[in-house]
Design brief:
By secondary structure, the chain is an alpha/beta fold. The chain has 2 domains: 207 residues, Alpha/Beta hydrolase fold, catalytic domain (Rossmann fold, 3-Layer(aba) Sandwich), CATH 3.40.50.1820; 62 residues, no CATH class. The chain is 51% helix and 15% strand. A hairpin with a 2-residue loop joins strand 1 and strand 2. 44% of the residues are buried.
Amino acid sequence: MLSVSIRGVRLVYEVLGEGGPWVAISPGGRRGLASDRALGVLLADAGFRVLVYDRRNTGASEIGFPGQSESHEQAEDLLALLKSLGTGPAYVAGCSSGSRLSLLLALHHPEAVKALLLWRVTGGDYAAKRLAFNYYEQFIAAVEQGGIDAVVKTEHFAAMVAANPANRKILEGMGAEAFLAAMKRWRAGFHQGSGHPVAGLSPDEMRGIALPTLIIPGNDRIHPRAPGQAAHRLMPNSEYREVMAEDVDVDVDFDGWAKKNGTLGAYFIDFLRRRERAA
C-alpha cells in the first residue's frame, strides 16, 4: 500500500487500473478504502484508473483534527491528494459521508471535478442524531471518563492504532484536553449543516453545483431515500437511479448493498462512459 503526506497527515492509498480517466472513491462513515475496493476493481476492469484511500482518521492513515468541520477537512485532503498524484480533474465518487466531502469539493473546487457519483446520500433527523453520536459523542464520553487511554480502547481508534501504531503517539501527544476540544468543535461543525435536506450543504449550495451528477439513494434509517431525491431536485444537472427496491429498518444496510456491487458498478460505468463520450 502506498502513502503520502497530505496537509499534515499521512494518507494511505491504492491506485487500481493501469490507465484511463481517474475516479476517486470516498467511502462512508469512518470506513477505510477496503470497504469500496471491490467497487473500484469493477471500475478499473472497465478501463478507469481508480483511487481508493483511507481518509484521515480512517483505516491505516494518520489521525488529525484541524479546522471547524470534518467533511471540509476531508474534501481539502482529497483535493491535495489528487494534486499530488497529478490526476487533473477527476470523477469523484462518494458514499454517505464520502458524498458530503465530494459535494463540498465540487462546491469549493469545481475545477478539480469532472462529475460526481453519489450514493446513499445522508439526511434527516435520525441520521443527524445517530451520526453525531457515532462520529463525536461516543469519543467525547470516552475521553471525559478515561482520558486518551479510554479513546485508544474504543473500537474505532483501537483499529486505527492496530493498523498504524504511530496513531497512538499522535493521540498521546495531542492529549485529552485538545482531543475533547476537537471533538466538540467538529460536532458543532457537523450540526451546522445536519438539518438541511442533504446533510452538510444548504439548498442554495446544492443548487450552485452544476456539475454532471449521478445520484443513487439509500434505503435505511441513516440513508433514507428522501435526501437522494432532494439532491436530485436541487442539483440542476443530475441524474437519478435506484438500486434498492425496498427500504429496510436498520441503521445501515451493509449486507444489502454488498450484494448490489455489480448493479452499482454497472450504473457508474454507464454514467462514466457517457460523460467521456460527451467530453
